[in-house]
Each structure stands twice: as structure tokens, then as C-alpha cells.
């Protein structure tokens, strides 16, 4: 069972349990040997707990298009997620992949940019409250699964969206 597939259970104050501390030996017999444990520090917001997730796909077109998607996530203080094709292109790390082979997310707002809506990705966002898609193909399956759809080339639309968001943020700060 992948994390995030089921909703978090409601706290039951009446239940009690016992914590049993187990001591794990330094050396565990077997053929597997741990050489090193490396904890990678991630930038930005945690994908699984983020209230806003921006995910990009192959529609980014190239590394420059991907940077625009990443800039949108940064502008919204959102976590940046991806689809398998974006990872395969080398635009982003595997740890950002959402879906069947990746992470499960359930943000308040999910924005899918330049992705088709393949089942393998969409199963990872089933808990999202509001879903938006930006794709230049009006017949893309992603539009059947989201609350709001924008039919446009993400490489042209996203920079305009970022500009409008920043204008709004500046007005909000000065008020």
C-alpha cells in the first residue's frame, strides 16, 4: 500500500496502545550489507504534505519549459511534482514523481501543467481537493478528470500566469 492512498484516520481518544521499544543489533546476519545511509535535503515544500502542488509533464517540451513550471511552483510556494516522462527527460529527479510508481499527494490545490492525465500519474492525486490542468490539446484525457481546464501551450501560458500572480501578490502586500 502506497502512502497517501487512504485518508488519514480520525483520532480516537478512547483508544490506547502500548509502545514496545525493540533493540536492533548493529550487525544483522545476512547477505545484505548497508554501506551508507545518505539523507538528502530537499528544497522547497514537501510533496506529500504540501497544500499546493504544481506538477509538470512532457508538455514542458524542453529544460527551458520545465524551468517555467518550476518557477510557477516557486511563485505559489508550492511543491513541485512530475510525471514519468519529465523524469525520463532528465528535467527533474525521480523523487518528485507522482503516481503509481511515485508519491501520493492530496493537496488543497493541484495544478497539472503539460501533462496528458495518464492513469499512472492521476492515481497519485486522487485526494486533491481542487484540480486544474493546462494542456494545449483540448481532447487530452486530463480535462475529464479536473475541475478547471485551460487549453493553451503551457510554455506561453505559464509565464503570463506567473506575471499575473506576482502582480496580485504585490497588490496584496501593499494593501
TrEMBL record:
Domain Electron transfer flavoprotein alpha subunit C-terminal positions: 47-125
Biological process according to GO: fatty acid beta-oxidation using acyl-CoA dehydrogenase
Name recorded for this polypeptide: Electron transfer flavoprotein alpha subunit C-terminal domain-containing protein
Species the sequence originates in: marine sediment metagenome
GO molecular function: electron transfer activity; flavin adenine dinucleotide binding
UniProt xrefs under InterPro entries: DHS-like_NAD/FAD-binding_dom, ETF_a/FixB, ETF_asu_C
Amino acid at each position: 500500500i502506497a502512502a497517501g492512498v487512504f485518508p488519514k484516520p480520525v483520532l480516537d481518544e478512547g483508544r490506547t496502545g502500548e509502545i514496545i521499544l525493540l533493540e536492533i543489533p548493529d550487525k544483522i546476519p545476512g547477505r545484505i550489507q548497508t554501506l551508507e545511509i545518505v539523507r538528502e535535503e530537499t528544497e522547497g515544500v514537501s510533496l506529500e504534505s504540501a497544500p499546493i502542488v504544481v506538477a509538470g509533464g512532457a508538455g514542458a517540451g524542453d529544460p527551458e519549459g520545465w524551468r517555467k513550471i518550476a518557477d510557477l511552483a516557486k511563485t505559489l510556494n508550492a511543491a513541485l511534482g512530475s510525471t514519468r516522462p519529465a523524469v525520463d527527460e532528465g528535467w527533474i529527479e525521480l523523487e518528485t514523481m507522482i503516481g503509481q510508481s511515485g508519491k501520493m499527494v492530496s493537496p488543497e490545490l493541484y495544478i497539472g501543467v503539460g501533462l496528458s492525465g495518464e492513469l499512472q500519474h492521476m492515481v497519485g492525486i486522487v485526494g486533491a481537493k481542487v484540480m486544474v490542468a493546462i494542456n494545449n490539446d483540448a481532447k487530452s484525457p486530463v480535462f475529464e478528470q479536473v475541475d478547471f481546464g485551460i487549453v493553451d501551450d503551457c510554455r506561453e501560458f505559464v509565464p503570463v500566469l506567473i506575471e499575473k500572480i506576482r502582480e496580485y501578490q504585490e497588490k496584496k502586500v501593499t494593501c
